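Pilot study result, target chain (275 residues):
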Amino acid sequence: MAENYYENLFRKEPQKPYVDLGPALPQNYGKTRIVLMAVDPWWLHTYWEVTPEDRENVLKIVGDGAREVLRVYNLSDGTHFDIDLIPGVKNWYINVNKPDGKFKVSIGFLDSNGNFYEIASSNEMITPPASVREGKVEEAVVTESERLILASIDRALADSSAFRELIREQLVSKIAQWQVLSSGHLASEGLAREYRERGEKKRGFFLEVGTRLILHGRTVPGASVKVMGKPVTLMPDGTFKLEFDLPDGEFVFPVEATDGFEAEKITIKVERESK
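Predicted structure:
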């Protein structure tokens, strides 16, 4: 099972037509800010920009021996913890392990006495619940314009009833996904819908558990990075992120980086066993 999973990790997608997206977004906007987002019920993601002027102003106050940190505030219970940052990094994944919890983060410096000097503070964010909330999950509503799309497909494919039904099902599914995305509750409603559908089939108590591995890192911008021998595209600041939904089994992820002169390799080994 693990061997087949490895074969599909880097399966090439069909080549898509070229689309001119215009000039690349700038790496910096010249404004100090930090943004917090929920990834799933257990993880947060934050990204930030700190201007050189704001950084220097705080360092003048903090003095020598300062450590740049993210301070993560759990607003649900009033606690917090700090994460030491790698110099130059501009985003971070945070394991809070608290579904339906309220959080915010600040970026700043700790002095040698442990005092925190804040540079910027983020928005507040609530992680989605990990299970289905009590009550009915609403079905997706198809708008009039979307009904017209379905009707046009019916007319175009009237001679092939089986194919017509397949296309209709796929389109209705896509419409439901668009509505969930626009609602701002993708993680919680998506989990609710998936669990409800599975629960209806079993007609009884059940438990479904998934495992997602987030593999992320950073190197020199412009370097070459490979994961499991496959090239990985870097962000302009040298960071990268891969996500894998893992079945049961042992998985080894060798990560290699080189700038043409030096090379480094780190191997991550992960095992999942469902009992």
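One observation from the pilot: Confidence is low (pLDDT under 50) at residues 134-138, 174-196. A full batch analysis is planned for the follow-on phase.
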